[in-house]
Design goal:
Length: 546
């Protein structure tokens, strides 16, 4: 294993800058002083390093009686400890067979007892595995391997708040295939013996474990069914599974009950849990589901493209035979209200429309040539949901919703009549090499297109100019159209089929990718506050639950 000392000096400083604590007063024997909010609001943070890549910080463990003492675990750089709240750090896990850590915990009843679970718990494309769990009884100076050597990845560790001999270890298991050494393990003798107390199957591990701070016999467990592909691609072979769930025990692991009330009924992905310490009756869970960021089957469709007006949303394009055209909307109309709700921007119009369902009628007030026009529009089913098995993108004329440039050009080999066809550009989950390669391909294609345009004469240039104008408009305010198909990279360079529009020849370049979810261009997932606009089954789509 390789670890960059330079990188960790950087992260030490970074963590020290970012974490501000009142423990400085305790450290120097001074009384705590209340800091004015006006003063603290003036603090501005800036990154001071590291400038190069480094392992991820996977876990923090704070000794709460003296919060200046804490540990930071990393994905591939071992363990760091500070006793002065990050001013200085000590490397404590450099001599072990692995430096990949999934979790670190300190016993709140004894700051010298520290547990480390090896094997990063983020099942990403580049990840190292571990060789079980380690225990220190001298604050991290020395370590002893306490077993569970074939569990590969450690999801979480939880130590009894009063009895440090009682420890729970959630094992995520092998990421690339099945293995039985996964699930929830418990020791009552400080790690000398282990008992597997919760096991779902050989494909499902445990990713989180939380003990009720006021009743340690109650424990919550999050299980996670996930498998990497064999090529370390960005998307795993399995993201969601029947095995992913939340379990609860009220008898310290003698029995478990799977919790389902109020939770999504579809396949789940990763789950994070936490108790509200002041009142542990309240529990928070952040849940990923197979429905995340999808549109409901009855998602409303207007059939227009719009942009921000000074007040309201200005219609820039109408889809032929779509609901807006049938209702009598025209290009240049400014929508100022939807069902009596005033809209101040295109995003505001979309937010109001998304509250409706396909088949609903909406009453629009538009300004046309400085005159009020009342329009009743019948919302339709989004044609993408009818025409494509691929995950559709949400209807959007909202600025900032990124779209693949090739989408504006349509799949030009199929003809240039598809203005703005395409979907959101996936901007997450792509490694730097792939992005760089795509940029290179795009640059080569741009040059080839430019050369071809010169050779094709003035008619072709005129058609290109017309298309460019439509493309720029599409980038400023994308419209709803069927999602473009995903095209292999080899096909992108070769796909220069000819179509026709307006008498001009067309150059085909199918560069668009099928969008994975709406709003990937803005947030890499759901748009802000979109959860409450997914209808009566909104809880199925993942998010934060209480």
């Amino acid at each position: 294993m390789f670890r960059s000392d330079f990188a960790f000096k950087g992260v030490s400083s970074f963590v020290a800058i970012l974490i501000l604590s009142s423990c400085f007063s305790n450290a120097f024997g001074q009384e705590k002083t209340k800091v004015s909010k006006d003063w603290s609001d003036q603090i501005k943070f800036r990154s001071i390093g590291p400038a190069n890549m480094m392992g991820r910080i996977t876990a923090l463990a704070v000794y709460e009686e003296d919060p200046c003492i804490w540990w930071a675990a990393s994905a591939s750089g071992g363990l760091l400890k500070t006793t002065n709240n990050g001013i200085n750090f000590e490397h404590q896990f450099d001599d072990q067979p692995t430096v990949s850590i999934g979790d670190v915990q300190v016993a709140q009843s004894d700051k010298n007892i520290v547990w480390v679970g090896t094997g990063e718990s983020n099942p990403r494309n580049s990840v190292s595995w571990g060789d079980g769990v380690y225990k220190s009884t001298d604050g991290g100076e020395t370590w002893k391997n306490m077993g569970l050597n074939k569990t590969f990845q450690t999801g979480a560790i939880a130590i009894h708040p009063k009895d440090p001999n009682i420890v729970y270890v959630g094992s995520l298991g092998r990421l690339w295939g099945p293995n039985p050494e996964r699930g929830l393990f418990k020791t009552t003798d400080g790690g000398e013996n282990w008992k597997k107390i919760l096991y779902v199957n050989d494909k499902t591990g445990v990713v989180d474990v939380q003990i009720n701070p006021k009743n340690p016999d109650e424990v919550l467990i999050a299980t996670y069914e996930r498998q990497r592909d064999g090529f370390d691609g960005n998307d795993p072979e399995k993201k969601y599974g029947e095995g992913s769930a939340i379990y609860r025990t009220i008898d310290a692991g003698e029995s478990f009950k799977r919790i389902t009330d109020g939770l999504p009924s579809c396949k789940l992905g990763r789950i994070g849990l936490d108790y509200y310490r002041k009142n542990p009756k309240y529990v928070f869970a952040i849940i990923e589901t197979e429905m995340i960021a999808k549109e409901p089957a009855d998602s409303p469709y207007m059939g227009l493209r719009a942009e921000d007006a000074e007040v309201g949303a200005r219609v820039t394009d109408i889809t032929a035979d779509g609901p807006s055209e049938k209702a009598g909307l025209k290009e240049g109309d400014i929508v100022v209200s939807v069902d009596r709700a005033i809209v101040h921007s295109n995003a505001g119009m979309l937010a109001e429309v998304r509250k409706k369902r396909a088949g609903d009628k909406v009453k629009l007030v538009v300004s046309r040539d400085r005159k009020q026009v009342d329009i009743e529009l019948d919302l339709a089913v989004n044609p993408r949901l009818q025409q494509s098995d691929a995950q559709p993108t949400a209807e959007s004329g909202e600025r900032g919703v990124g779209r693949e440039r090739g989408a504006g050009r349509g799949e030009r080999g199929a003809g240039r009549g598809q203005r703005g066809a395409g979907g959101d550009e996936p901007v997450t989950g792509r490694d730097e090499d792939t992005e760089a390669s795509d940029k290179k391909v795009a640059a080569e294609e741009e040059k080839a297109d430019a050369d071809a345009a010169k050779a094709e004469g003035s008619d072709e240039k005129a058609a290109d100019d017309e298309e460019k104008t439509a493309e720029e408009a599409a980038q400023a305010s994308p419209e709803e159209e069927p999602a473009a198909r995903e095209v292999p990279r080899s096909e992108r360079a070769a796909g220069r089929e000819r179509g026709s529009r307006g008498g001009g020849a067309a150059r085909g370049r199918a560069r668009t990718r099928t969008p994975r979810s709406p709003f990937t261009g803005t947030l890499g997932g759901q748009a802000a506050n979109f959860q409450d606009q997914q209808g009566k089954d909104g809880h199925e789509y993942g998010g934060v639950y209480m």
